[in-house]
């Protein structure tokens, strides 16, 4: 049993290395597509990296973009770890964002110290409710949760559009959006600080909240009896039931926490970046981005933190690609490829056999 | 008795020097097997000895690493079951390979369906199935869905599947695992009919008695190695047993006389329904006292599963009463019963007993994770759990050693069961319920499990043992209650029990109508 | 009265217009799910079909070649999903999510490369899927107008209902259908009977991609007449929902899609009325689906081996 681990073994076993390899392959595949379309790869990737790393302003943009992705990613990762697949994070995000917006506008006169926590609370509650409804439908009538989550994503989307149109909160101008929330609700950094460090104008405290939430999620999953219960139910409902854990209640709890996280993601995005809700014609896809972030972070809270920043950076950097006439969609191809290779990461484990007995790898008749 | 059909001049199967490796593990190490026409050939070995692996190669599910397989004197390379089927080999797996929502006919013809043009010809299929079931005297309902028929009928469907494909050589993998003594007699009759018809049968089993009753020859495998092939008539059961295990085995469990004490479990007039909402418990009464093992003998499906699920709180009863040490636990949640003295070794260790993705130590506290010993308020106390688990792993000899952090799913079946036994015994409750506690375990592990069950009794605990293995019930129980059709129909003391009599009662004979 | 009949005609027309994309995809999803593979990548496969159908029709001028190529593009991504999930044992959800990013990424990138950095591909009216029964009805009568309103519809609308019958026949009346359903319930049993589970599943997932591609092509070639990055927004997921709604049966999925198509039709007609908020009307299909599920459908039998990778022993 005390065999010395070779490099091959390390590569074959480490999930971190699989993820890094997947990311490298993602960029390679992106490069191939760029090359096929006769776009200079060096120029495009150069632009991508420059617009991410070149200065503090760009870096802060990446963090600002990444913040909501981290938290929605945590939401999905939490659901994965507790055996439910929260494909409804999109709707919970929208509801959280809507709740924070309503509070931020209607209670705008409250002082910052009260208003911001109130906005977060409202967002968490709204997201949690949106998650719990689905669990309730499943427990009470046996309705498939994936199906109802897809429905509730759209219901949230149209509800948000509907409410954003209310005269009490609608923007006075012609823009199809609400008013901006009260300055007391914004989580922006002080202007002096932004200027001093040359940060982006929407640089905000959100990242701190995201880091705290990462630690909290890690703590719940790994260190508490609640985490034990939820994981037991996620892995094996029958055994959990046998062990005296209430399965239905656990599913509701897991969905509530997951929903609350997605809702908080919505609030972070709104109070930090947008400041208002626009009336959209299609879903913004934060929930689906959250799924991707959770997958790249292999559902580990700290992995999700890094994956969220990675995704935020690519989204921000990708937006600058049109400056060199490269399509921003190359980012989707990179991300899709990364996720695809994470899905088939068992092939990285197979290199062990390639080395040991080369004839074994190809025999598949 | 069966030997009259054996044609020693015709070898239908020859497996020569079969080696099968999975990675570094050698499952079969140079095994030889010869089967003649009209012969019932038993393959005997403990769980994990490599019997099923050997047969899966004969059936084309695995490919041998080396060695050759001859069918009817011709060397054949089996790449998949289709090759085996074409060579006239059929296999009835221990875990039935039946598609639950499909009908009997659909299951039998699946893979060789008759068609008219592009359309399935189910009318012809049905006729064919009925014809063949009548020819071999295997009665089935061709239109019933598998999920609605009994285990016995499911097995007949499995045998028909093989016969329908024209199999001349049938492999039966542990075919009696869930049958009643009467059904076993019936099955042996069917096997003899088949050999009379010129078919050959390979019987995989670890039950010595069945080999003596049915087989002509027996090949013994131990730890993947070929031990011997013997003529069954020439050997005793004990000789077979020591060849299988490689040492002398004692099947007698050492159990001192002792007088039962106060009543622990009392079940009165219990009613309950099964998952289809059909009443399955019809007024059951049961008492278990301190210091005794009460065995529930019965055929699967007579309510024993539901009885245990109701006592442990996994299922709601529809009437009656249950008390443990005088405390009413009727229709209370699982944790309530646990707190008041109920622990159990569940029937399905992978479904109820363990969270396979959890580590061994996490599984050790499945009911106790909130106990102040293992948690500080809402926080889990990993250190205390580790300490507890390490002690249990050592005490109960759970292998591999130091497996605290390994996922339970990576342990062997026997060691998984040891984890459950360790947990439930260490829970130290007044009532221990054990359901088929040795299913799928090898002889060594069985001895271990029996030892701990008897030890609980000797310590003055009440033990309720539910098992489909009549031998197990008879060797462990102080009292045997026979369950039939949702009621306890008779009770005998463990010493006086006689197998035939029990078998008859289990089938509803003697006491009903 | 005449007005009501005309309105009804328009609603039914819209139902029949909006159902085919969902229904093609849903029929495909039935293949994949019933054989045991969850295909959450339908959305991406539809986008691939929407793009390829439109772009091929744009260049060839032939709608049917375009339509077919839409299906083939979907099938290509179906094969990718099958490769990962069936052959390489990948988690089906992860692989499907990857497809949902990859396929639209590739489609829009190619669109930009082909059409000089714009991401909208227009389609000539002649290259559209043809309307059937044009001028076949006498519009002088109320009944004739109604018939014209409803049945002068795109050929794909008729095609998709024929496809429902064909798929139903394959599922329940053919050898392949029986085996495919068995693979989704008990793959080990299939393997012992000499049925090649991996090949069957691979084929089913590829078919699901092909049908999703056809569904996507319906959107760009029969409804919007152009390809844009937002041509497919959520239809793939709605198709999956319809399949769960229809208890994994093609005929059930058809009902689910028709319900959705009908509600969308309602939305189109009521949307012009300005009485109720357009946003609330847009919500109708989703709310109605949930209500119908609560009232009539409830729990569905998911194929026993659905979502579980099958590892062939060697």
Structure report:
The complex is a heterotrimer of chains A (365), B (513) and C (314). Chain A has 18 helices and no strands. Chain A has 365 residues and is mainly alpha-helical. Chain A has a domain at 66-295. The relative contact order of chain A is 0.20. Chain B has three domains: 2-245, 3-Layer(aba) Sandwich (Rossmann fold), CATH 3.40.50.300; 262-341 and 429-513, 3-Layer(aba) Sandwich (Rossmann fold); 355-428, no CATH class. A six-stranded mixed sheet of chain B has the order 6-9-10-3-11-12, sandwiched between helices. Chain B has a six-stranded mixed sheet with strand order 18-21-22-15-23-24, with helices on both faces. A four-stranded antiparallel sheet of chain B has the order 2-1-4-5, with helices on one face. In chain B, strand 9 (169-173), helix 6 and strand 10 form a beta-alpha-beta unit. The relative contact order of chain B is 0.10. Chain C is mainly alpha-helical and 314 residues long. Chain C has one domain (2-235). Chain C has twelve helices and two strands, in the order H-H-H-H-E-H-H-H-H-H-E-H-H-H. In chain C, strands 1-2 form a two-stranded antiparallel ribbon. In chain C, helix 2 crosses helix 10 (235-245). Classes of the chains: A mainly alpha (365), B alpha/beta (513), C mainly alpha (314). Chains A and B meet through helix 10 and helix 11 of A and helix 10, helix 11 and strand 20 of B.
């Amino acid at each position: 049993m005390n065999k010395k681990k070779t490099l091959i073994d390390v590569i074959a076993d480490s999930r971190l290395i699989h993820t890094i390899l997947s990311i490298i392959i993602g960029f390679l595949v992106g490069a191939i597509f760029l090359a096929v379309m006769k776009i200079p790869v060096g120029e495009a990737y150069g632009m991508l990296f420059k617009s991410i790393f070149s200065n503090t302003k760009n870096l802060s943009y990446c963090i600002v973009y990444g913040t909501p992705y981290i938290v929605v990613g945590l939401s999905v990762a939490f659901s994965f770890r507790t055996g439910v697949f929260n494909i409804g994070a999109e709707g919970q995000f929208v509801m959280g964002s809507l709740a924070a917006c309503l509070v931020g506008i209607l209670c705008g006169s409250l002082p910052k110290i009260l208003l911001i926590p109130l906005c977060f609370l409202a967002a968490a509650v709204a997201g949690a409710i949106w998650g719990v409804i689905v669990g309730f439908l499943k427990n009470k009538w046996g309705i498939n949760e994936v199906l109802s989550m897809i429905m509730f994503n759209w219901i949230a989307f149209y509800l948000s559009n509907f409410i954003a149109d209310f005269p009490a909160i609608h923007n006075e101008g012609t823009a199809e959006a609400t008013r901006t929330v009260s300055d007391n609700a914004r989580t922006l950094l002080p202007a002096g600080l932004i200027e001093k460090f040359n940060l982006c104008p929407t640089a905000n405290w959100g990242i701190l909240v995201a880091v705290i939430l990462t630690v909290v999620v890690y703590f719940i999953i790994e260190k508490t009896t609640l985490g034990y219960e939820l994981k037991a139910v996620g892995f094996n409902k029958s055994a959990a039931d046998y062990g005296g854990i209430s399965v239905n209640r656990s599913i509701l709890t897991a969905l509530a926490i997951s929903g609350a996280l997605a809702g908080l993601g919505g609030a972070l995005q709104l109070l930090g970046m947008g400041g208002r809700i626009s009336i959209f014609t299609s879903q913004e896809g934060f929930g689906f981005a959250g799924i991707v972030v959770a997958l790249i972070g292999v559902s580990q809270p700290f992995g999700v933190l890094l994956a969220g920043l990675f995704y935020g950076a690519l989204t921000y950097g990708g937006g600058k690609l049109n400056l060199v006439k490269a399509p921003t969609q190359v980012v989707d191809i990179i991300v899709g490829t990364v996720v695809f290779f994470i899905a088939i990461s068992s092939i990285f484990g197979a290199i062990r056999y390639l080395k040991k007995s080369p004839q074994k790898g190809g025999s598949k008749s | 008795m069966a030997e009259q059909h054996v044609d020693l001049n015709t070898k239908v199967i020859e497996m020569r020097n079969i080696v099968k490796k999975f990675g570094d593990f050698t499952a079969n190490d140079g095994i030889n097997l010869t089967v003649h026409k009209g012969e019932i050939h038993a393959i005997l070995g403990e769980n994990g000895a490599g019997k099923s692996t050997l047969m899966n190669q004969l059936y084309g599910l695995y490919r041998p690493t080396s060695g050759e397989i001859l069918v009817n004197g011709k060397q054949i390379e089996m790449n998949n079951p289709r090759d085996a089927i074409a060579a006239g080999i059929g296999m009835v797996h221990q875990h039935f390979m039946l598609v639950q929502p499909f009908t009997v006919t659909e299951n039998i013809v699946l893979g060789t369906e008759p068609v008219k043009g592009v359309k399935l010809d189910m009318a012809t299929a049905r006729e064919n199935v009925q014809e063949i079931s009548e020819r071999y005297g295997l009665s089935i309902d061709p239109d019933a869905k598998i999920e609605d028929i009994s285990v016995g009928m499911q097995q007949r469907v499995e045998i028909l599947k093989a016969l329908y494909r024209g199999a001349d050589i049938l492999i039966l993998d542990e075919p009696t695992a869930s049958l009643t003594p009467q059904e076993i007699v019936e099955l042996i009759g069917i096997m003899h009919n088949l050999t009379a018809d010129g078919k050959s049968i390979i019987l995989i089993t670890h039950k010595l008695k069945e080999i003596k009753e049915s087989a002509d020859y027996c090949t013994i495998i131990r730890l993947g190695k070929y031990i011997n092939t013997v003529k069954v008539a020439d050997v005793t059961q004990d000789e077979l047993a020591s060849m299988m295990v490689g040492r002398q085995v004692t099947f007698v469990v050492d159990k001192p006389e002792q007088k039962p004490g106060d009543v622990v479990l009392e079940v009165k007039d219990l009613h309950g329904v099964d998952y289809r909402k059909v009443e399955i418990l019809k007024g059951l009464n049961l008492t278990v006292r301190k210091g005794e093992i009460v065995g529930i003998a019965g055929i699967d499906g007579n309510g024993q599963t539901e009885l245990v699920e109701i006592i442990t709180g996994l299922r709601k009863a529809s009437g009656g009463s249950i008390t443990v040490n005088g405390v009413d636990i009727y229709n209370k949640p699982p944790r309530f019963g646990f707190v008041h003295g109920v622990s159990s070794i569940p029937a399905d260790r992978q479904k109820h007993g363990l969270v396979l993705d959890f580590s061994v130590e996490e599984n050790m506290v499945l009911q106790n994770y909130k106990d102040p010993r293992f948690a500080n308020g809402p926080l889990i106390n990993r250190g205390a759990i580790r300490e507890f688990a390490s002690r249990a792993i050592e005490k109960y000899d759970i292998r591999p050693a130091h497996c605290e952090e390994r996922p339970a799913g990576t342990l062997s079946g026997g060691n998984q069961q040891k984890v459950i036994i360790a947990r439930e015994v260490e829970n130290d409750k007044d009532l221990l319920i054990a359901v088929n506690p040795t299913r799928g375990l090898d002889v060594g592990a069985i001895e271990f499990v029996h030892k701990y069950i008897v030890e609980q009794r000797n310590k003055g605990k009440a033990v309720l043992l539910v098992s489909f293995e009549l031998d197990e019930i008879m060797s462990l129980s102080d009292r045997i209650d026979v369950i039939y059709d949702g009621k306890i129909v008779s009770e005998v003391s463990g010493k006086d029990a006689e197998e035939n009599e029990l078998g008859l009662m289990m089938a509803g004979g003697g006491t009903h109508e | 009265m005449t007005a009501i009949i005309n309105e009804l005609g328009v609603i039914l027309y819209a139902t029949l217009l909006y159902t085919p994309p969902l229904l093609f995809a849903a029929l495909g999803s039935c293949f994949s799910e019933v054989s045991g593979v969850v295909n959450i990548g339908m959305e991406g496969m539809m986008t691939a079909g929407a793009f390829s159908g439109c772009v091929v029709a744009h260049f060839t001028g032939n709608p049917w070649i375009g339509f077919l190529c839409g299906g083939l593009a979907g099938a290509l991504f179906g094969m990718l999903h099958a490769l990962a999930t069936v052959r390489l044992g990948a988690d089906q959800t992860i692989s499907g999510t990857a497809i949902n990013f990859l396929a639209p990424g590739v489609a829009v990138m190619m669109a930009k490369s082909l059409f000089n950095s714009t991401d909208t591909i227009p389609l000539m009216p002649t290259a559209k899927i043809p309307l059937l029964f044009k001028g076949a009805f006498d519009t002088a009568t109320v009944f004739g107008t109604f018939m014209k309103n409803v049945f002068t519809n795109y050929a794909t609308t008729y095609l998709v209902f024929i496809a429902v019958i064909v798929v139903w026949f394959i599922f329940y009346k053919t050898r392949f259908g029986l085996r495919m359903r068995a693979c989704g319930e008990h793959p080990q049993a299939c393997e012992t009977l000499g049925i090649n589970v991996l090949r069957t599943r691979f084929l089913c997932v590829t078919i699901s991609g092909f049908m999703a591609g056809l569904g996507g092509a319906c959107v760009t070639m029969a409804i919007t007449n152009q390809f844009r990055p937002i041509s497919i927004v959520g239809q793939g997921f709605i198709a999956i929902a319809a399949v769960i709604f229809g208890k994994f049966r093609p005929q059930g999925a058809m009902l689910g899609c028709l319900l959705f198509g009908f509600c969308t039709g309602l939305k189109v007609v009521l949307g012009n009325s300005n009485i109720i908020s357009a946003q609330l009307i847009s919500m109708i299909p989703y709310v109605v689906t949930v209500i119908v599920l609560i009232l009539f459908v409830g729990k569905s039998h998911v194929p026993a081996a659905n979502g579980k990778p099958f590892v062939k022993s060697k």
